Amino acid sequence: MATHRLLTTLKSSAPALGAWVTLPGAIHARTVAQASSHLSWLIIDCEHGLISLNPGVVETVQAIEGSSSSPPSSIVRIPATGISGTDTGLGWQIKYALDAGARGVMVPMVGSAEKAREIVAEARFPPVGRRGFGSPFTPGIWGVNASEYLHSANDSIQVWVQIESKEGMQNLEEIASVEGIDALFIGPYDLSISHGLPPPSPDPHPEAEKLIQRIREVTHKAGKKCVMFCTNGEQAAKRAKEGFDMINVIIDANALSNGIGSSLATAAGQ
Ligand code: 3PY
Ligand code: MG
C-alpha cells in the first residue's frame, strides 16, 4: 500500500505532531516541512489561510512531498463546511485537493452523520464512495503508478471532520460512528464561540474544556482518532499526556512573527 509519514507515526505509540500552513508559496511550505523531524503532518489551510485550492494546493503539496525522504503528510483543509442543509461545494473541493496529491482532507464544521457520509463518499473511490479517477498527475506526486494509486488511495487517504459547532456536538456520537471517517478534529476556537464562550486565550475556557474532553472520549469509544488544535508546544505536550492521537503544535504565521518579535525584543534590551 502507498503509505506516508502520518500513517507510519500512527502505528507507533507516540502522538503524531503537526503544524498549520496558512501562507502561500512553495518555498514557504518546504521551509515549514523541513523545520523539524518531529513533524508528521501539515494542514494546508484553504479555509482561513491564504492558500488557494487551485493552483495553490498543487504547488504546496509538491513542495512538501519533495522536502525529504519521509516528508510530513499533507492534509488539505477545504474552505467548504459540513454544516447541515447547505450545499457548499464539498464535492469538487475534496476532489481537487486529493487530485492535487494530498494525503488527506479535513472539512470544517461538520454537523451531522449525513454530511460525514457525504464527505466519505467524495473522498473514496468506488465501491466505497464516488470519487472519480482521472488525474494524470496524482500518482506521480505520490511516486506510484496509476494502478497502485487506485488500489491504495482508499486505505491511505485520511478523512478528518472538524467538530466545532453546537450541531456537531449534538450529533457527536452519530458522526463518530460513520464508517470511513478516520479522525475527529477539535477546533477549540469555533467550538468555544459557537457555545457562547470566550475563545481560548491561549487555553480554552473551563466549559469549553469539558466539551473538548467529551469529544475525545466519544471519538475513542467509536474507535476513531482524535486530533487537537494547539498553538504552542507547551499546550501540545499537555494534550499528548491526555491521550490525543494527533496534535497541531503551531501556526506558521504566528511562529514567524513570534520569532522575529522575540529576537528584536532581545536585541532592543527588553
Ligand atoms: C478552530 O479552533 O476553530 C479551528 O478550526 C482550528 O483552526
Ligand atoms: Mg474552526
Structure description:
- This protein has helices at 5-10, 26-33, 56-65, 90-99, 113-123, 138-142, 146-156, 166-170, 172-176, 188-194, 206-221, 233-242, 252-267, and strands spanning 16-21, 39-45, 73-77, 104-107, 158-163, 183-186, 225-229, 246-251.
- With 270 residues, it is α/β, with parallel strands linked by helices.
- α12 (233-242) links the parallel β7 (225-229) and β8 (246-251).
- The longest helix is centred in the last third of the chain and has 16 residues, at 206-221.
Key descriptive features of the protein:
binds 3-hydroxypyruvic acid; 270 residues; binds magnesium ion; globular; 13 helices; alpha/beta; TIM Barrel
What's the short version?
With 270 residues, this protein is α/β, with parallel strands linked by helices. It has helices spanning 5-10, 26-33, 56-65, 90-99, 113-123, 138-142, 146-156, 166-170, 172-176, 188-194, 206-221, 233-242, 252-267; strands spanning 16-21, 39-45, 73-77, 104-107, 158-163, 183-186, 225-229, 246-251.
